[in-house]
Design a protein that fits this description.
4 strands; 45% strand; mainly beta; four-stranded antiparallel sheet
């Protein structure tokens, strides 16, 4: 099986999924995601959680909390 990575972006306040992207194996890569400026409740997004998860390895998942300007 070829390993892959998922980049998941969510609103940590409402626990709403905002974006999801699957990437293949690369030594170095970048992802461009379009995010809404408001959540489902119509509130302006101020903070999102970004998760990077492997579909092949346990223990490599990362979480980053990002404040939006």
């Amino acid at each position: 099986k070829e390993e892959g990575w998922y980049v998941v972006v969510g609103d940590s306040t409402t626990r709403e999924l905002l974006a999801l992207k699957r990437m293949g194996l690369e030594v170095r890569g970048s992802v461009r995601l379009r995010l809404p400026t408001h959540n489902g409740a119509g509130v302006t997004l101020r903070r999102v959680a970004v998760y990077v998860m492997s579909d092949s390895y346990l223990g490599l998942d990362q979480q980053y909390d990002i404040v939006l300007d």
